[in-house]
From TrEMBL, chain A:
Keywords linked to the UniProt accession: 2Fe-2S, Homeobox, Iron, Iron-sulfur, Metal-binding
Residues that hold [2Fe-2S] cluster according to the record: C90, C95, C131, C135
Name of the protein this chain belongs to: NADH-quinone oxidoreductase subunit E
Organism encoding this protein: Caldichromatium japonicum
Record keyword Translocase present: no
Cofactor note: Binds 1 [2Fe-2S] cluster.
UniProtKB/TrEMBL annotation, chain B:
Keyword tRNA-binding in record: no
Pfam family, one: 2Fe-2S_thioredx
One Gene Ontology MF term: FMN binding
Domain of life the protein comes from: Bacteria
Keyword Metal-binding in record: yes
Name of the molecule in the record: NADH-quinone oxidoreductase subunit F
Key words of the record: 4Fe-4S, Iron, Iron-sulfur, Metal-binding
Cofactor(s) needed for function: [4Fe-4S] cluster; FMN
Signal sequence residues: none
SUPFAM superfamilies in alphabetical order: Nqo1 FMN-binding domain-like (SSF142019), Nqo1 middle domain-like (SSF142984), Nqo1C-terminal domain-like (SSF140490), Thioredoxin-like (SSF52833)
Length: 167, 535
């Protein structure tokens, strides 16, 4: 007879853990729900920290190394807290041909930000993506979840400047 | 449920709506990014105040010319895109004028002519309902023929007959490799296992391609229908759609469609009141190009790192959780319902000897009309680039068209009269791939383009095998050096040698095809490499 595994307590009373738990429960705490679970952690908290990785590993009854291995394999998962605003520059082929490099250079020159970095006061994170599927509007940028097409360094920098100052 | 019942259901849905004219607003992702949702709202409002009750405003899927979005079509009910009045770059303030044009003359300043080659040269099978129906409405799909092929297969055909039709159609997989679909289905069907799976590969990792996204956002039910027919044919009861998380709208529309199909009995324990059981779940990708590779994709569904494994065994024999698994691309499944409705022989008449049917292409890069097209196989590259896409803007010259994504190659001007099919493209050293086409003009350096693709392959390599992991890194370093003007003849020779090693020694398709962009640019644009070499 196997005893039912003991589920770890929620790390703290942040209500967002309930969402994470719900995802795992819906999948019967099966190991194959790991990626789904990490998605729900990241949707809720914005990133995956050590507490979350440990909690997920204990809940799904698998080694932390495996959870860490999966979390670091996929590009979407991030172990660093994002800034208040995120700017994702598409660096897919269509956007590259239409000038994505110029957008990145503009952001580097103006905000001293490279892909994967967040600026010092935590206002803005810069990321890149491999095609967001809006290639007809290349070069495309996803700013706080909203896809903006046909960007130029000038209008993108102006928009970012506005966001960073407002926040 | 029988076909008669479905027809009756369609007639009932149709009778519920009495409008004669429709204003269709594209609400697929690209047009939403150019602001189509406020346009939809404004038109609905204008219709409520100015309309005469005979007109309906609705959101529809992609109409193709995404770069001119938001697109709005004014049409008689059920009329095709080509016979509608099309408006481009519409803003909310245009709404009253568009409504007034229902009775009066068209709004000339917004007109987007549909008698141009972009629209006229297309043949729509996969996209037959895209831009016509509301993708969030199951009744609209049913009125336009949705699920009739599924009902027909499960009530009137044996699994063997279904496979025979698909084989007769000559359909080849649209995910890249072009494997014959009928053959794949019959292999899985023959496996003596109680548990089998159907997987729809909606990862679309190919940068510069958005065909699958458009199909999922515009007509999700046809993908569910294709998967259910496949499940019946091979004897599976469970399906997964692996869709990339970067496509939130496609995910949302799929969720809506799956729920509606379940409620209506097209999915679930007894599909359409027959003993056939089939249900579908979604799985979200997490941004890894290699997860489009079938064995990596299955590992990812199982919750593991998405790393490929050697084949054989092929998924048909041992796939998801060790069970026989059928895995096809979105567009492959989207072709199934029309093949069943109209017969394999009908489909086989379209296209060329070795490549039947149509292909959806995503046109992007340095061209006037960027967007989505569906054309018969065998059309020439020149027709696509010079006529359909409207040519190169700003008086620049065409240099190359890149097909097949990072595993493809670049085709120069002298081959533009080549017909587009699996075999001709292969002869040119590139591939059809999933259907991304990116046009490059004279301002680009082909060495930079090759370096760009190598950077992609290098950082997307899963790292499992050494030839790919370190080979792509070395190749990228060499290309970097050559692009900088610091390369030597030896560097170029080493680069060519590495192409061979990486191609021959890598475990999966990513590594095996990573050298293609280098090889094809070397083949046609060697002078650009040589010009960069230090004497
Ligand atoms: C690196 C790599 C990436 C791939 N990406 C995709 C993809 O994004 N979508 C897809 O349908 N097939 C992709 N494929 C091909 C699949 O492995 C598989 O052949 C295909 O899904 C089979 O479906 P089909 O027969 O309908 O084409 C990829 C293959 C490789 C090697
Ligand atoms: S060829 Fe590259 S992507 Fe494929 S298994 Fe090897 S390392 Fe991974
Ligand atoms: S390449 Fe940027 S959206 Fe497709
Ligand atoms: S997304 Fe609207 S036309 Fe393509």
């Amino acid at each position: 007879m196997t005893l039912p595994p003991i589920r770890p307590p929620l790390p703290n009373d942040d209500p967002r853990w309930k969402l994470v738990n719900a995802t795992m429960r819906r999948n019967g705490y099966a190991g194959h729900a790991l990626i789904e679970t990490l998605h729900s952690v990241q949707d809720a908290f914005g990133y995956l920290d050590e507490t979350a990785l440990r909690f997920v590993a204990a809940s799904l009854d698998m080694p932390l190394s495996k959870v860490y291995g999966v979390a670091t394999f996929y590009h979407i998962f991030t172990l660093k807290p994002p800034g208040r605003h995120t700017c994702v520059v598409c660096t897919g082929t269509a956007c590259y041909i239409k000038g994505a490099t110029g957008l990145l250079e503009g952001i580097l020159a103006h905000f001293a930000l490279r892909p994967g970095e967040t600026n010092e006061d935590g206002a803005l994170s810069l990321l890149t993506a491999r095609c967001v599927g809006a290639c007809g509007l290349a070069p495309a940028v996803v700013l706080d979840g909203e896809v903006l097409g046909k960007q130029t360094p000038e209008n993108l920098l102006a928009k970012l400047e506005g966001l960073v100052h407002a926040s | 449920m029988h076909l008669d019942d479905l027809a009756e259901l369609a007639a009932r849905h149709r009778a519920e709506e009495t409008h004669e004219q429709e204003i269709r607003v594209c609400v697929a992702a690209s047009c939403q990014s150019s602001g189509s949702l406020p346009v939809l709202e404004a038109l609905k409002e204008a219709c409520a105040t100015q309309g005469n009750g005979r007109c309906k405003v609705k959101g529809v899927g992609c109409m193709g010319l995404c770069s001119a979005g938001p697109l709005v079509a004014v049409a008689e009910r059920d009329a095709e895109l080509n016979s509608s009045l099309l408006y481009r770059n519409v803003t909310p303030v245009d709404a009253p004028e568009i409504l007034a044009s229902l009775q009066g003359p068209p709004v000339e300043r917004l007109r987007c002519p549909t008698d141009q080659p972009f629209f006229q040269q297309q043949v729509r099978i996969v996209l037959e309902r895209s831009g016509l129906i509301d993708p969030e409405s199951l009744p609209e799909a049913i009125v336009h023929g949705g699920y009739s092929a599924l009902i027909q297969t499960i009530t009137e055909m044996t699994p063997a007959e279904v496979i025979r039709e698909v084989t007769a159609s000559g359909l080849r997989g649209r995910g890249g490799a072009g494997y014959p679909t009928g053959l794949k289905w019959s292999t899985v069907a023959k496996m003596p296992s109680a548990q089998k799976y159907v997987i729809c590969n909606a990862d679309e990792g190919d940068p510069g391609a958005f065909m699958d996204r458009a199909v999922l956002e515009s007509d999700p039910h046809r993908v569910l229908e294709g998967m259910a027919i496949a499940a019946y044919a091979i004897g599976a009861s469970k399906g997964y759609i692996y869709v990339r998380a970067e496509y939130p709208l496609a995910v949302a529309r799929l969720e809506t469609a799956i729920r509606a199909a379940r409620r209506a009995g097209f999915l679930g324990a007894r599909v359409a009141d027959t003993p056939f059981a089939f249900d579908i779940d979604l799985r979200l990708g997490a941004g890894a190009f290699v997860c489009g590779e079938e064995t990596a994709l299955m590992a990812s569904i199982e919750g593991l790192r998405g790393q490929p494994r050697p084949r054989p065994p092929y998924p048909a024999e041992s796939g998801l959780w060790g069970c026989p698994t059928l895995i096809n691309n979105v567009e492959t499944f989207a072709n199934i319902a029309p093949i069943i409705r109209k017969g394999g022989a009908w489909f086989a008449q379209i296209g060329t000897e070795g490549s039947k049917g149509t292909k959806v292409f995503a046109l992007a890069g340095r061209i006037k009309n960027t967007g989505l097209i569906e054309v018969p196989m065998g059309i020439t590259l020149r027709a696509i680039i010079e006529e359909i896409s409207g040519g190169i803007p700003d008086g620049k010259r065409f240099k190359a068209v890149q097909t097949g994504g990072p595993s493809g190659g670049c085709i120069p001007e002298q081959y533009l009269d080549t017909p587009v099919d699996y075999d001709s493209l292969k002869t040119l050293g590139t591939i059809m791939g999933s259907g991304g086409m990116i046009v490059i003009d004279e301002t680009a350096s082909m060495v930079d383009v090759a370096r760009f693709f190598m950077e992609f392959c290098m950082s997307e390599s899963c790292g499992k095998c050494i030839p790919c992991r370190t080979g792509t890194w070395q190749m990228h370093a060499l290309l970097e050096k050559i692009a900088r003007g610091a390369g030597t003849d030896e560097d170029l020779a080493l680069l060519e040698e590495l192409c061979e090693v990486v191609r021959a020694m890598s475990l999966c398709g990513l590594g095996q095809t990573a050298p293609n962009p280098v090889l094809s640019t070397l083949r046609y644009f060697r002078h650009e490499y040589e010009a960069k070499l230090r004497a």
